[in-house]
Fold this sequence. Notes:
The chain is of the alpha/beta class. It has helices at residues 5-12, 42-56, 70-83, 98-106, 144-155, 159-176, and strands at 60-67, 89-96, 112-113, 195-196, 200-201, 205-206, 212-213. It has a domain at 190-215. The protein is globular, with a radius of gyration of 19 Å.
Amino acid sequence: MAIDNKDYAKVVVSGLIEPMDSIFRHESPFYDPNLTQLPYDPTKAQALFDQLAQDTGGPLTFTLYTFSANDYVATATYVQGILNKYRNVKVSIDAAASAAQQLRLLQGNFTAGVTGGAFDDPDPAWLGLFTCTAVPSTTGYCDTNFDAAVKEDQTTLDPKRRLAVIGDAQRIFYAAVPAFYMERRYSWLFTSKSMRDLQWVNDGLPLLANMWIAH
């Protein structure tokens, strides 16, 4: 609630990419405008920071781990700058090379970390990261109701029912906030004019069986 994704989109990506209210792009069949991440509410966020400081005897102090690549550093720097404007919060940044950042995230050796995840269909590249049995479980998040939605998603043969249970999973996830999604990225693949029926899924994986070359 302390981060305004509309401001983030304006400041960090110059308004070239729409603010990320949902983990799904708006043209996705899984997108539901009634299911979005926690809204920006700086007043409530400040109240929570103040309550935490009162309960623990001091401000929230942590290091935000990030990759050393410029775009990841830009995200971390934005988050640091915004959070440090609140009372009872102090954030520092530790940027590391890709291998080191991946290792400390996979080992759970962090308080907060900036990373990315590419998916089109939510199963398994999104859902699989947050089940109780996830390996690795980067965040340690576990909710049996979330797992139940995942299980039904994987077993139902009814497309409409699948949309409904993915909606249930989103509702649970957005309330718990094991991760907060800040920026949507786009990947591009260029081919020659002779390539036909090129389609890809998730992290740039081409559907090879569909591709053919015109002579």
